[in-house]
Amino acid sequence: MELPFAESWKIKMVEPIRKSTRQEREQWIKEAHYNVFQLKAEQVYIDLITDSGTGAMSDRQWAGMMLGDESYAGASSFFKLKDMITKLTGFEYVIPTHQGRAAENVLFSYLVHEGDIVPGNSHFDTTKGHIEGRKAIALDCTIDEAKQTQLEIPFKGNVDPKKLEKALQEHGDRIPFIIVTITNNTAGGQPVSMQNLREVRAIADKYHKPVVFDSARFAENAYFIKTREEGYADKSIKEITREMFNLADAMTMSAKKDGIVNMGGFIATRLKEWYEGAKGFCVQFEGYLTYGGMNGRDMNALAIGLDENTEFDNLETRIHQVQYLAKKLDEYGIPYQRPAGGHAIFVDAPKVLTCVPKEEFPAQTLTVELYLEAGIRGCEIGYLLADRDPVTRENRFGGLDLLRLAIPRRVYTDNHMDVIAVALKNVYERRESITRGVRIAWEAPLMRHFTVQLERL
């Protein structure tokens, strides 16, 4: 008899969490203006708002923190981190930042200018915000199949080569670089194949354009290449990672995801010109070049986290838990972006709340309903996150409207996944009684979902 699957780690520290009553949650979410970002952490039972900075670090990482070098310039911790990044990616030049959006801010301050067009695969919220905030355009070139949530194909995060080439033919002189997000978060945590990365590289070379990877979940992308793409089953995660980055010129990284640290990020590139151009913005926005926005102890922890999380067992344990939740939702008939992604389940809200019109934000409404049901905090990745069109100022309803349930790494057990699944089932069973959603009472001009204030209709 085959042994059942079990985690590749054991627990040596725990943190208590508290259940709340429905009456308490109704009051709390009203005080938060129906925006789960405005809830206090202690008002949440199971927190799935993000997998960013919420993972549990390993014993080696905690030990590494005790050896952090906090020297202002030339800290040994920086060189440990730099050496690990270069080993994994081949990129020689490294700029540390305090998190992924800071990496985008530093690099895009050098590369993105008013009127530019940056094609990519479903730019995430901060990426799009940093592009549009500079009066440039984030052009989505994701494959059309990504919008069909019930379609099962292995690499739903891919760039559409025809869309990308058309953009370069029409706007080549306005395109500073191509960006590829691995994995594609906005499309549902969906991976990008090595074959597609090669196709993007070939088109980029044809038009003499550099390629940047948004790499927050690059290790999970490598896992899917190993398990789903022909020719990679016998390659290690580190070998696949190096092959992926050989097809790029630079990367931005939110280390809070696949680096499994609570805070941190970096830019890495093989282009000395880009390093020289961006490093002044690091000094201006983040700090000196050998710490950027990070402590020495955090750089130590990140170097170790990158090493550990580019091993198969660690990734298999993490992704298996996401797949476990997906199977539970299959049992209950709840539609989500299929196949299950690497870091989260993305519930197809308009297919659940069929009576809530798009103008009343079904995914945000479902997010509120799940919190009211069981104190579970998810995150809307949809019409609210899409912001308004920067020209027309109209809401953008063209993409998917998803409730993301992001699973922190090494934090919750499968018992928690069972609670999440049953809570969603309870909401799903009363879906026809949910006929109205929410409306915006106040919003920021960019990345509004973090601070938006809503009213129930």
Automatic annotation (TrEMBL):
N6-(pyridoxal phosphate)lysine: modified positions: 257
**SUPFAM superfamilies per UniProt:** PLP-dependent transferases (SSF53383)
Domain Aromatic amino acid beta-eliminating lyase/threonine aldolase span(s) in chain numbering? 47-421
* Cross-referenced Pfam families: Beta_elim_lyase (PF01212)
Keywords for this protein? Lyase, Pyridoxal phosphate
Molecular function terms from GO: carbon-carbon lyase activity
One biological process GO term for this chain?
aromatic amino acid metabolic process
- Gene3D superfamilies listed in its UniProt record: Aspartate Aminotransferase, domain 1 (3.90.1150.10), Type I PLP-dependent aspartate aminotransferase-like (Major domain) (3.40.640.10)
Superkingdom, taxonomy of origin: Bacteria
The cofactor(s) it depends on are:
pyridoxal 5'-phosphate
| Record family assignment | Belongs to the beta-eliminating lyase family.
What the entry lists under PANTHER family is as follows:
BETA-ELIMINATING LYASE-LIKE PROTEIN-RELATED (PTHR32325), TRYPTOPHANASE (PTHR32325:SF4)
Please give the name of this protein: Tryptophanase
Q: Identify the species of origin.
A: Jilunia laotingensis
